[in-house]
Amino acid sequence: MKMKLSIASALIILIAYSCANTKNEQQTVSGKIDNASGRQIDLIGFVNGEPDTLGTEVLNESGEFSISVNTGRLSFYQLAVENNGALVLVFDSTESPVIEADLHYINKKYSVKGSKDSERICELFNQSVDYETKLDSAMKLMRDAATTGDNATRLELSVYYNDLRKEYKDYLLNFIDADTTSAANFSVLQRLDPKQDGEYFIKVRNGLAPRMQGNVFFDQLANNVAKIEHEMKMNASTGIGKQAPDIILPNPDGEEIALSSLRGNYVLVDFWASWCKPCRMENPNVVKLYNKYKKDNFEIYGVSLDRNKDKWVKAIAQDNLTWKHVSDLQFWNSAAAKLYNVTSIPFTLLIDPDGKIIEKKLRGQALKNKLESIYGY
User: Are 114 and 27 in contact (CB under 8 A)?
Assistant: First the structure.
């Protein structure tokens, strides 16, 4: 499930973005864990991303503990209670977190004081558990309704489920907006889609830069965000309503054909390849539509991501693709694919007679419906 944030995934995410200690100042990690008398508790730190046990203690009869630790810069830690779960903390040399938990519910609820970032992580985790529980319950009820054939209940639950997912997504976005400098936002980003929520990746990068710049894991995040920014820029330049950048590539005979040479027609730019099974499955539908509308100024400009010319030409003949075809035979390094930021195929763009992009990713029924709306039949 896209929005699911389990304790295991949260721990993996936060561990991956741990920060190295740089300064020796002693603090304590202390607190009380009910129903855990006699259990061993370990405080695990991370130096250059590698785990290191910093302190171990056996909980007393009251479940109380206090572990001394030397730290400096903002760092992530894991407080593990044998095989019964773990909590994630993040603090620097000015803070000494105090934790309260119950071993029976450690993977559901806990509280922490004395560390702002740890408190934010706790808030995120506790709230996420609430959403996950509700989403899992709704999903189970939907499956039960589907099994029994209760379509009315299933549809009602589907609406509730989708509304709850949106509510959860809004919570995550608002969580970042409330404090873009919080280290807890590392975990939130793992629940978001960079293609849909790129601006939030940028917000987190910018918000954390003053606190974590120069750290190897922050630099990794910054590099990933730079790629997201580049993709956003590319998408903006080839978005709907934009003038389609020109493509000039050779056809199978070596003759260069420019996309702009088809100006005055509606043009479907079709990125495909002979080795792409979904592309080949879609081709009969495209052939049918081309034959229907080619007399009315409808053209197709096929851009192949093949690297073997013989296979490319053979696929054109086998699938009866009688429109214009071009390729530089550079596979995913195709200049045209990079120009249009094509990362998967089939990928299509529909361009109007003035050369402007009017739609993307049209296939099957969606392409049929769009052309019918343009031509009126």
Answer: no
Query: Nearest 5°: CA angle at 226, between 223 and 228?
Result: 115
Contact 264, 352 (CB under 8 A): no
Decide if domain 248-375 falls under CATH 3.40.30.10: yes
Angle at 228 between CA 334 and CA 189, to 5 degrees: 140
What whole-number distance in Å separates Cα of residue 287 and Cα of residue 304?
A: 16
Q: 123-136: buried (b, 16+ CB within 10 Å) or exposed (e) per residue?
A: bbbeebbebbeebe
Close Cβ partners of 227 (under 8 Å, ≥ 6 residues apart): none
Question: In this predicted model, what pLDDT tens digit does every residue of 115-169 receive, in sequence order?
Answer: 999 999 999 999 999 999 999 999 999 999 999 999 999 999 999 999 999 999 9
- Which class does domain 7-106 fall in? mainly beta
Collapsed DSSP state (helix, strand, coil) of residue 19: coil
Question: pLDDT tens, 51-88?
Answer: 899 999 999 999 999 999 988 788 889 999 987 878 99
d(CA 67, CA 31): 9
Kindly report the number of other CB atoms within 10 A of residue 283's CB atom.
21
Q: Kindly report the backbone phi and psi dihedral angles of residue 31, in degrees, each rounded to the nearest multiple of 5, phi listed first.
A: 150, -155
Please report which residue ranges of 248-333 form alpha helices under DSSP H: 277-293, 309-318
Handedness of CA 95, 98, 103, 107 (dihedral sign): negative
DSSP string, 48-102: TTEEEEEEEEE--TT-EEEEEEEE-S-EEEEEEETTS-EEEEEE-TT---EEEEE
The tokens describing 3, both together, are 């929005």
Contact yes or no for 173/114 (Cβ under 8 A) = no
Q: What angle do CA 210, 214, 219 make, to 5 degrees?
A: 100
d(C-alpha 129, C-alpha 17), whole Å: 21
CA distance linking residue 310 with residue 179, whole number of Å: 56
| Residues β-bridged to residue 227 | none
Tokens of 67: 């572990």
So where are the chain's domains?
Answer: 7-106, 126-237, 248-375
